[in-house]
Amino acid sequence: MLYRLKTDFRLSIITLLAISAILGISPFAVMRFAQGNMLAGVVDLTIMLSITAGMVYAWVTGDTARSGFFMAVVACGGAVTVGAVVGEPGLFWLYPCLVTSFFLTEPRYAIFINLTAVVALMVHGVAFSSPVQMWSFAATAVVVSCCSYAFAHHNENQRERLEHLATIDPLTGVKNRRSMDEELAMAIASAARTGISYGLVLLDIDHFKKINDEHGHSVGDDVLTEMVVLIEQNIRKSDQLFRFGGEEFVLLMSGVDQTGLRAVMHNLQHIMHKFLKHPGGKVTASFGVALLKVGESPDDWLARADQALYKAKAGGRDQIVYADELIAPEPAAETA
Ligand SMILES: Nc1nc2c(ncn2[C@@H]2O[C@H](COP(=O)(O)OP(=O)(O)OP(=O)(O)O)[C@@H](O)[C@H]2O)c(=O)[nH]1
């Protein structure tokens, strides 16, 4: 639960808004029922229940886009209704709602919701004691909305930049191991749901240490980036390449069978033989290949590809080994 709050910003805002709304509105709801103002009490109760329902929906379905939009509408709509029912004190409720709209839903929706709420209150007019107060309210509501938009926009940009830094390998530009873990889990879920087959290739450059030692680290870096460009030019858009660590990469392919996988691997090896070079000569790589098995975990899948890669290295390098070929044949039945 804490992990979801930490990693999902919109879910945390939804939860914060719901808890604040319940804590902030419930004393007023009690007071209004106690004073016999049933309409205002029912409005408060409806807002609290709707916001709680929005939060529960977000937690259960993970669909924070829809519940965020719903909660922005409920919060601003609720504030307008309170303003219309109880008058001037209701105006104050709209300010926090104008701010949170930008964190709950997309900016274009938030602008529309905020503008509608402000105009609705002005048209209704009951909440204002004078035209000056009404226009002061309109001006301050616009200032608050503009500042909130700027802050939310800046915050979103920063979040996207951080997410990019956390998931991309800075040298080669491909996704890193952290992203790979998520994509493998998603591939397994998709295979179980749709029956699409997935192939995984563990690729390790041969004698890379020697390239670094003899020609320098920057030449080694160039080999890594050139290899990534070469591979990406020769795989499908739906295939994904990850840097597993050092000179080891993982290629995840969707919609491939044994025959297709062999054709792709043969082509990749051929392309690398032809085009991947360093100042001392050819650069080769070893490949361990495994098709996803039904019910397999990411770790088991990777482990099979790793065993195949180990065999490719042990067999002299510059080889492709398929995990299925590592399964020992059934011993022949003994004859009496
Ligand atoms: N230039 C460069 N070198 C790296 C990078 N990351 C890891 N390395 C180097 O990659 C080398 C990997 O060496 P080893 O694990 O011995 O593998 P190898 O020399 O390729 O040997 P085999 O895999 O057995 O063929 C190490 O020297 C690392 O320092 C990187 O980002 N850039």
From TrEMBL:
<dbReference type="InterPro" id="IPR050469">
    <property type="entry name" value="Diguanylate_Cyclase"/>
</dbReference>
<feature type="domain" description="GGDEF">
    <location>
        <begin position="196"/>
        <end position="325"/>
    </location>
</feature>
<dbReference type="Pfam" id="PF00990">
    <property type="entry name" value="GGDEF"/>
</dbReference>
<feature type="transmembrane region" description="Helical">
    <location>
        <begin position="12"/>
        <end position="31"/>
    </location>
</feature>
<dbReference type="InterPro" id="IPR029787">
    <property type="entry name" value="Nucleotide_cyclase"/>
</dbReference>
<dbReference type="InterPro" id="IPR000160">
    <property type="entry name" value="GGDEF_dom"/>
</dbReference>
<protein>
    <recommendedName>
        <fullName>diguanylate cyclase</fullName>
        <ecNumber>2.7.7.65</ecNumber>
    </recommendedName>
</protein>
<keyword id="KW-1133">Transmembrane helix</keyword>
<feature type="transmembrane region" description="Helical">
    <location>
        <begin position="109"/>
        <end position="128"/>
    </location>
</feature>
<feature type="transmembrane region" description="Helical">
    <location>
        <begin position="72"/>
        <end position="97"/>
    </location>
</feature>
<keyword id="KW-0548">Nucleotidyltransferase</keyword>
<dbReference type="InterPro" id="IPR043128">
    <property type="entry name" value="Rev_trsase/Diguanyl_cyclase"/>
</dbReference>
<feature type="transmembrane region" description="Helical">
    <location>
        <begin position="38"/>
        <end position="60"/>
    </location>
</feature>
<keyword id="KW-0808">Transferase</keyword>
<dbReference type="GO" id="GO:0052621">
    <property type="term" value="F:diguanylate cyclase activity"/>
</dbReference>
<feature type="transmembrane region" description="Helical">
    <location>
        <begin position="134"/>
        <end position="152"/>
    </location>
</feature>
<keyword id="KW-0812">Transmembrane</keyword>
<keyword id="KW-0472">Membrane</keyword>
